[in-house]
Specification:
There is one protein chain. The protein is of the alpha/beta class and 406 residues long. It has three domains: 222 residues, HUPs (Rossmann fold, 3-Layer(aba) Sandwich), CATH 3.40.50; 77 residues, Tyrosyl-Transfer RNA Synthetase; 68 residues, RNA-binding S4 domain (Structural Genomics Hypothetical 15.5 Kd Protein In mrcA-pckA Intergenic Region, Chain A, Roll), CATH 3.10.290. The chain is built from 19 helices and 13 strands. The strands form three sheets. A six-stranded mixed β-sheet has the order 1-6-5-2-3-4, with helices on both faces.
Length: 406
Amino acid sequence: MQKQINIDELLTRGVQDIIGREDLEKRLESGEKMKIYIGADPSRPDIHIGHAVCIRKLRQFQELGHKIIFLIGDFTAQIGDPTGKDEARKQLSPSEVKKNAKTYKDQISKLLSFKGNNKAEIKYNSKWNKKLKFQDLIELGSKFTVQQFLERDMYQKRLKEGKPISLHEFFYPLMQAYDSVSMDVDMEVGGNDQLFNMLCGRTLMQKLPASTRRRRGEKNKNKIVMTFQLLEGTDGRKMSKSYDNYIGVSDLPNDMFGKVMSISDDLIIKYFTLCTDLSLEEIKELESKMESGENPRNLKVRLGYEIVRIYHGEKDAKKSQEEFDNVFKNKEKPKDIEKVNLASDTNIVDVLVNFKLVSSRTEARKMLEQNAVSVNNEKIIDTNFIFKSNQKYLVQVGKRRFLEIE
């Protein structure tokens, strides 16, 4: 599985910082194989292209022969990562976590290889965290100070605003740190908003060696930490499942293409750099074209094509581009609109939810209020609108979602 990779680009493209960079460069030069991991809490079932920035980098390390672990935080998701939040994150039940994690391997398989001699591995941190006793938590907690945790911006903000900080929130970075010890990893990667949590793991590995290393009598390990630039979502904020502004790696090709077309123009080059396989030289040329007056829409079309190609292949990338042109440039209807029948007269909110034009009844009402729903090319804002079972309708939600009722 060995592959020629530009090491300088490997360590810089999309990378925000590397703690232990000199150590990493030495290991890469010596050919030493490392155990590298990324963790993700199944707070929602979707993995988005913001997560993929880190995971695609892991694929490059995998192609160099390094061992890759994708860790599903089925235990830590029940605590809730407080990072970047102005209030405590909602705790999930074990059943919610299990349901959300179910599709992760299928999604990750678009990015990492689970075949061959150097297969990526999926692990669950409940395997070791649920075995911890209260005495173990005391020992882990003794390696950190309250000041270290309270100095974080999000806690300072909440203290000033008089918002509560729950004690259980401090357990999250502690548990994430223990993941590194339990797996005895050489390196962890993640978004730059995860720096504190990842450094906790580095600290714990220095102070509390893994049992396997203790048995061999080895010295404490300095875990390498690689952080990445965060990708903004379709609304300009950090791409996040919590904000519903993300582009999922399993989004349908047409939806994925349409969402890419909706990003702001100032994000185009960043998306090319972090989300595509185009060379940096070609991206520089595209940037020059944009600065010279090239219509940003043309660059977005290329961007949409490249991103859809990575997750769905060449054929679907071409098809989604053609479909977008038909709907938006040529003002035509999509060619493959889903056709359904109604057994009885049905309220518009039920139709939008039942046929997955929206994700929830709340979103349905929101789209109606925002004048984003049309029936037979007429805007509908009435949440009590009824579809008659013996009539035909063309329903459109936003710019990309259509349904024909026959």
